[in-house]
Amino acid sequence: MTNAVIVDAVRTPIGKGKATGALHDVHAVDLLAHSLSALVDRTGIDPALIDDVVSGVVTQSGEQGFNIARRALLAAGYPESVPGVSIDRQCGSGQQAIAFAAQGVIAGAYDVVVAAGVESMSRVPMGSAVAGTADLNGVAFDARYPDGLVGQGIAAELIAAKWDISRTAIDEFSLRSHDLAAVATKNGLFENEIVPLAGLAADEGIRVGSSLQDLAKLRPAYYDEAMAQRFPEIGWKITAANASQISDGSAAVLIMSEEKARQLGLRPRARVHSFSVAGDDPLLMLTAIIPATRKVLARSGIDLADIGVFEVNEAFAPVVLSWAAELGVDLDRVNVNGGAIALGHPLGASGARLATTAINALEQRGERYALQTMCEAGGLANATIYERLDA
Length: 391
Fold this sequence. Notes:
By secondary structure, this protein is α/β, with parallel strands linked by helices.
């Protein structure tokens, strides 16, 4: 079987997704183009060899509509012969881009492909693609779920209730994310993956000096009287501090066949070992990372104990904590350089960002396998295993 290998992976720093954020003035096309051009600059590859650019992007409207992958690769200076496609699997879009790219290499459809992701949440607000839609679901969907589904914040509250996760544990995990990200930044652990942009050289959302006492003062962000009556088990523990940040950013990963890498004289950093996608209860919405993890481990033949690094997207703290509790994973191996609570979660970019961080963490820690998984709206999740090739 043809191996799909990762030659390099880069990302922008992640900016705060607000009008005052450092990347707010960067057009979404230019945001993605920056990672695409940096990937070519770092590897020295002739971009004419790229068979396709597959990019995740969630809110495909405004600047991010009309197939941003194609416009961004042209903005990055790639030849006009290079095609591009934009995909949406919600928060897992960037990770799905990697899966599609790797599958294309394994199948022989691609020799060289770029998987990427982008989201400028400050310029293209989350949900704006469906804003004003009178009926999003249709008759048959609503008949199957007559009580209606809920937003992600309520889903996170339901997860905290189901797994009996305390507010203290949630806030402790959130504080841990910022502390680990701050230490990683201070020690230069992100320097190999970040390509500075617009005067920003480090992730903008990391908070230094917070305490559990500070976090405990924050009020629940999603309290709703109707939801409180519908779900009396909810303890209302989700705040702005224990949820992922609204953010701007992009990332890009160069994937090719192992044979092509040898021909070009490039040293692969990792192999895309195995991948899976799973669905779960759309009401809880964010729990599919549990079956997705089990599924990718079964496909790979790798034991959970052999995974040295886990990257589990921190959409909300209870998502990671419930996953770890269900699978028996030691948090010492999870999001070792912090996660989306501290670094931010630019929706379409996060999957490619987590992969970039995971590969660097493998090298930094001398581990062989990394497992990445992300919850996604609608009760979906991707899971991917990467293998460090010089392990």
